[in-house]
Amino acid sequence: MLALLSVIWGINWPIIKFALTEVPVFSFRAICLIGGGLGLLALARIGGYSIRLPRHTIGVSIISAFFNVTGWHVMSGFAVAAISSGHAAIIGYTMPVWGVLLGALVLRERLTWRRVLSLTLGMAGLAVLAHDELSEINGVPYGALLMAGAALSWGIGTIIMKKVSWGAPIAVVVAWQCLIGAVPIVGGALIFDWSEIHWPSLWPLLAVIYNLIFAFVIGHYLYYKVVSIFPVGVATIGTLAIPVIGLLSGAFALGEPIGAPEISALVLVVCALALPIVTQPRGFSLARLRAR
User: Fold this and answer.
1) Is the pTM of this model over 0.90?
2) Mind spelling out the 3-state secondary structure of 143-201?
3) 47, 114, 172, 242: least surrounded by Cβ within 10 Å?
């Protein structure tokens, strides 16, 4: 699931860039969130599950949706429009820093040497790539700051998702969070995008469809299913493959540059991903058994 998620979300970074060439940020996010939320509810219903949220989780769902959905999607959308898709992915995936640290502080998850070393290697790889982006920015690093804020928002939302006993299928929980988090985004679209809305051409339209089906319906389900199986520290470190795929796909689709910094970062991130599995295979085997 984590490997499939990495591919789906990794190649989505340049795809988002295609969509935003003709679809405004608020409108793009609103379409994907509403369609993705309804799609997840439909899948849950087809699977025979109730699509109601337990009453005791409604309040925390609103809080979680604000961080997981509204904060992440608004800030990351405007960031991708402002900077290259590959580097936006890199800065956005500083989220594992917040995931590991908040997991230790809030959930009392252990900061084992494997997680610390894996996190250090992975973040070193991201730092190599982020350095170029930050060094090229003149004045206020608008896009970089937005992406960093989006990463923090996502980290907080992930901790909330892990901490709460939802009492409902993960697809239902995520679906309602998409719909709840979409409310202020729809408001933003009505206020700011009204005069710019028009039917997009083929490639931006296909980019919207990909986001709706794969990035939102399938991707959101896979991510929170992984979080429900593994500790937050392990799950978030595992997502470090996504910005590498995003960088490579951005180079292929958009002609964004790849040089020595990108290659160095790739080696560091691969080592970060391999370390927990190679040094502690029994723990991952037990997690796979729990997943069944």
Assistant:
1) no
2) HHHHHHHHHHHHHHHHHHHHHCCCCCCHHHHHHHHHHHHHHHHHHHHHHHCHHHCCCCC
3) 47
Longest dimension (CA), the chain: 57
Q: Is 113 exposed, middle or buried (0-12, 13-18, 19+ CB in 10 A)?
A: exposed
Place of tokens 């996010």: 29
Tokens encoding 199: 């039917």
- Amino acid residing at 30: A
Q: Provide the token pair at 207.
A: 């980019």
Q: Report which DSSP code applies to 21.
A: T
Determine the Cα–Cα distance for residues 201 and 205; give it in Å rounded to an integer: 6
Tokens of 128: 């190599």
> Which 8-state DSSP code applies to residue 55?
G
How do residues 128-187 score in pLDDT, each as one tens digit?
866 766 665 554 567 878 888 898 898 888 888 878 888 888 889 989 999 999 999 999
pLDDT digits (tens, 9 = 90+) for 66-101: 999 999 999 999 999 888 888 788 778 777 667 777
Query: Which uninterrupted H or E stretch holds 107?
Result: none
Supply the DSSP symbol for 214.
I
3-state secondary structure of 248: helix
Structure tokens that stand for 268 in this block: 């560091």
> What is the dihedral sign for C-alpha 242, 243, 244, 246?
positive
CA distances from 266 to 82, 132, 150, 248 (A): 24, 15, 23, 10
HSE toward the beta carbon, residue 276, CA cutoff 13 A: 26
Q: Can you read off the two tokens belonging to residue 79? A: 């960031």
* Token pair in block for residue 175: 């679906």
In one-letter notation, the amino acid at residue 282 is: R
